[in-house]
What we know:
The chain is of the alpha/beta class. It has helices at residues 4-16, 71-82, 92-104, 117-132, 186-195, 221-231, 251-255, 282-285, 304-319, 323-345, 370-373, 378-390, 411-422; strands at 38-42, 45-48, 53-56, 110-114, 136-140, 153-155, 163-165, 178-181, 200-205, 235-239, 262-265, 276-280, 350-354, 357-361, 393-394, 403-404. The strands form four sheets. A seven-stranded mixed beta sheet has the order 4-12-11-10-9-5-8, with helices on both faces. A four-stranded mixed beta sheet has the order 1-2-3-15. It has a three-stranded antiparallel beta sheet with strand order 13-14-16, with helices on one face. The two termini are 17 Å apart. The structure holds pyridoxal-5'-phosphate (PLP).
Amino acid sequence: MIHDKSIELFHKAKQFMPGGVNSPVRAFGSVGRTPLFIEKAKGSKIYDVDGNEYIDYVCSWGPGILGHANDEVIEAVQKAAMDGLTFGAPTKKEIILTELIADLMPSMEMTRLVSSGTEAVMSAIRTARGYTKKDMIIKFRGCYHGHSDGLLVKAGSAALTQAVPDSAGVPKSYTDNTLIAEYNDYDSVRELFERYKGKIAAIIVEPVAANMGVVLPDDGFLPFLREITLENEALLIFDEVITGFRLGLDGAQGYYNIKPDLTTLGKIVGGGMPIGAYGGRREIMEMVSPVGPVYQAGTLSGNPIATTAGIKTLEILKRNSYYYNELENKAKKLAGAFIEYGSRNNVSLQVNQIGSLLCAFFTKEIVVDFKAATSSDTNQYANYFGRMLDQGIYIAPSQYEAMFVSVAHTDEDIEKTCRAISM
Ligand SMILES: *Cc1c(COP(=O)(O)O)cnc(C)c1O
């Protein structure tokens, strides 16, 4: 496969953008290759500037549940664009989308639309702090919630302490109110509530972690988080930026039947356009300005084109709820191919799969938390990535990302991918 044009563009891109990209994982750094520059995509296929075709399992990191350039979505977006790109004033479309969200995710009685997942999470946390009048939050190691200062953290040196910045440019003081617990580790959460009694505003969690590979909550974990937050008058925030409308129409909260106080959405909710959303119980959301004292605003929030793409995408999913079974079946086939490959070749492999999310880890350890996830042999992942790419299959250029299956993946695509996995 020839990548000359991508290589040339990457060289030029590096002159004008840091690392040649606008989001770091796109640079292919952890798999030791140069990134593909994409020309176009349709359905399950993505095409690079050298004319190579790939079956795409990145799906723009999650939004592409319908596959690329769905005809109905594109047509609606084109029509909306003719009426103007942005007004900075209310539109009927914002009501349609927020009502649709409330209908599909009943815990989101009221929603504020923003323009990215990062913004949704940042604002949800501000709202939780405003509502509870407390400052501290608990996040889990390995969960990603966007790149706002207070969330770019890693665990400090002593166990059970406050977090420290995980990026240059984040003042230590900005992370003082972020506490880190371990995913699926009940005691780590209990101990933080004991140590910081009466100070914790909220727990934020990816109900299925999909930014350290895919890590499932154990059976009692989410109910435990619900219970301990209620006991301590803290809010439970589900970051469903990936899981929302992916695990089902009602997201992970429907799948696991847990009602969070606040939910953040992104990715699928924008149908491929930039939207984030946060919402929850009316009394909490009425803390947000202009009703309440928690300030939050956005020039392009509720943008009519993005909103159109989101509405269309959710309407299509709602109309075809059987998609979710199909998605799961496809993901199960892929998971099966990994397991078979591992056992046939004596490779230590763990496959975590739920709905249309899956991830293979090259480790002996059962992957239930960050520590196990990072025991994966990333060199083996890089080899696997390269083998797949050379066979026309585009997967995430990093171990710590999910493989996303879309409605547009055909049986033929899945079979071809299974064959590629087993080679
Ligand atoms: C992608 C992601 C975000 C950040 O969303 P952006 O739109 O990239 O800012 C936040 N939380 C989770 C769980 C995500 O997967």
